[in-house]
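Dock magnesium ion; give full complex structure.
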Amino acid sequence: MANVIVIGAQWGDEGKGKITDLLSKSADVVVRYQGGVNAGHTVVVDGQTLKLHLIPSGILYPQTECIIGSGTVIDPELLIAELDQLAALEISSQNLLISETAHITMPYHRLIDQAAEERRGEHKIGTTGRGIGPTYADKSERTGIRVLDLMDPEGLSKKLRWTVGYKNVILEKLYNLPPLDPEEVIDQYLVYAERLRPHVVDCSLKIYDAIQRRRNILFEGAQGTLLDLDHGTYPYVTSSNPVAGGACVGAGVGPTMIDRVIGVAKAYTTRVGEGPFPTELGDVIGESLCDRGAEFGTTTGRRRRCGWFDAVIGRYAVRINGLDCLAITKLDVLDQLPEIKVCVAYEMDGKHYQDFPSNARHFARCRPVYKTLPGWQQPTDHCRSLKDLPPQALEYLKFLAELMEVPIAIVSLGASRDQTIIVEDPIHGPKRALLYANSAPLGSRV
Ligand code: GDP
Ligand code: IMO
Ligand code: MG
């Protein structure tokens, strides 16, 4: 039995969907623990592409229970659209469970998110416009609507009459927008409630019960470490905690129940939305990464900003999440390049820094210090073991593992399940903490 957290080690879109789907084969339960429909996780199976926003990427395994945890925020309209998408593909959602304490995204959250972004002007964050920030803000302010409220028609009507009235003041007075009709919102959400009711459970109790029955649980993160509200590039972050620690809070499990943490990182870096990005490439190489990697947002369709791999943020992700190992994705996207750069440190005011600075103004001034490695200039998407890889590609992976002092357990070379090299069992292989304790050469395992 092993309980495993899968997190994004960069700015999101690392390929968590593919890796979660892959590892779900041996999971009994998959739990999404934070975020909402801002996430877009792509799973490609048998040539069929499935884009998931809220439903855990384990849904393709009929025996696996999939839980949308307490720490998430749920837009019922889009969740129902996702359920319809699954039904159209004849994928069962019978095993989908929804936490009764998750918060609900309301129409005023979406409107306020979009209006606030416009008002921010040059200070805009580049949000997905899906109402995520305002939903979490209401949760913290204690004016949120929870799944529990949705399940109680009388209580919901009473609560929404007050809340919509309150939000209308903000919509009208602050943003010059027309008010919402509380009765319309109530009617609409009562319909959603009945569609979702059969899936609603006490999520923490379900998970505890599964742990006691020695089931394998996989905790699926959305977004990435650098988008974490507390540990990311604030204010250019999302409003939840994608880091591994967030899994305990968001799913309602104690830290002693977690066996392993797996980080997913691309072989290069991407970012959607605003905010500093030291290794960003504004040249033809950046364009070619975007084109070859099909780097367009799953949720908003926005072009993702592309750049070289940044080992400073990689090391930071190892530290903040306590990573046991890494899954490196999209190695194939680098196939045609004659040389490849890796950021090994930052330079600011003539000094070199190895550690990610928590001061945002300093981070914005950091310039990358690169080490250049030779490319391999041949396809790798057919490789199924390390010995199939060109020597330069193997050297590249070794270099990354050594820089970040963490073993690489999985290498992904294409979107489909079989385009993967399992270097070592990411769930049952040795823990990094043990390697560290034994002073074994870290990162030498690729
Ligand atoms: P997530 O948000 O972390 O789940 O990542 P996304 O699904 O938003 O973006 C990753 C994209 O890369 C998706 O379109 C995947 O199908 C695709 N992908 C995943 N792994 C690989 C890989 O190794 N190579 C290539 N070329 N594409 C991949
Ligand atoms: P997955 O799970 C990449 C980014 C947005 C914006 C910032 C805040 O697919 O990796 P929000 O709407 O959350 O308030 O936007 O966070 N962002 C993502 N970037 N992948 C995601 O999810 C993201 N979810 C949010 O672009 O910069
Ligand atoms: Mg994504």
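Observed: Residues 439-446 have pLDDT under 50 and may be disordered.
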